[in-house]
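Quick question about two entries, pasted in order.
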Amino acid sequence: MAALPLVKLAPGITGASPVVRENARIILDRLIRGIHDAAANGIPIGMGTDSALTYVTYYNAWREMDYAVRYGGLTPAWAFHAATGANARILGLDQVTGSIEPGKAADIVVLPANPLEDFRAFTTPRTVIARGMIIDSPSVERSDEIDTHLDSF
């Protein structure tokens, strides 16, 4: 997600120099190859974001899963697992989190549709339960300009 916008969007939009854009292309190619290699060799795949970057917003983690499917060749279920259970296992936290089971800590997002059919369901959560606190109809401040650019590819 960090490199893809710099490769897919025109330099006039991103402001990336030719050197930055080429570096992003090299990184993106290696990231995608890394996902394919890990998947082919049974290496656990986790998911994260670099939300301090211009085109990586804190509210668009769903795009990372979408990109893992579209560019990395993962199934939607595998990408979702990478963001939840696999991350917990990689971090050594799978005994206390990473899945919804009795005795585990869990933050839950209630969505209007099945995210495995379209990760965009995460853009309109109905309810969020975080650390036992219920938030109905949560909303976030979005950047329409960034979202429009990211929606273009």
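Here is the second entry:
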Amino acid sequence: MKALLAALLAAVLVYLLYDTWAVSSPMLPRTGRLCDFSITGSVFEDIPTAIQRGIRLLEVHIYSDERDQPVVATKPQTAGSDVAVDNVSFESVCVDIANEAFPSKDPFILSMVLHTDRTVTINKVAEHLQTIPRKFLIPDTQIQTMDVSRLENALLLVSGGSVNGTALEPLLNLNWSDSGIRRLSLQEAIHPRDPQELKAFTRSGIALVAPDPRVKTIVGNPGAPAAFGCQWNLLGSGPPGLVAKESRTL
């Protein structure tokens, strides 16, 4: 009887201590603008594998096949090539994202580099994206300054280039032909023409750092892009997910 009473008293004490901690240290939802977070991304990686290891930023290089269907290269192509010999269908990429990327407290960002200007192919890209459940697609643009608490389970679409006048254009949340995001090569991010201007831009805009297949040797400090404020890194090996900028280095 004494042992039971002691156990009950211990349980009450633990509950009171936990209740006191919970009141003084509430679990507040994460807040902050999207541009205030850094993300380590991936390119030319098997989609399900990347998602399963926690990647929330994925870049795909889209080409047009012999039937004008969009395909995604599985490895870097020869510079200037408009054909991806080793590829998977863009439709399968959309299926993988819909099945594997959600639910998650972090948004999933899909950056699409178009290696074709064929309107029929680009419109097919939009058609496949619209097969992803609407609850994951958000209509907002200029989302770089949106609070991340509003982006849980959101699929964010980023692209640029030959999208004007296509069905893909209105689906984009960020367009690097506009002012909210810049897509930089690693060399451009390591050696910016105007470092102070780049730092100022990343206070409210997003810089995406991507590999350049034409450059075989990198000269400079690979950690420099983070020092200049660049948030989205497709070359890094840092932890997946969104991390406050000041707590991550490339």
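Reply: DSSP finds seven helices and twelve strands in the chain. The mean pLDDT is 85. Hope that helps.
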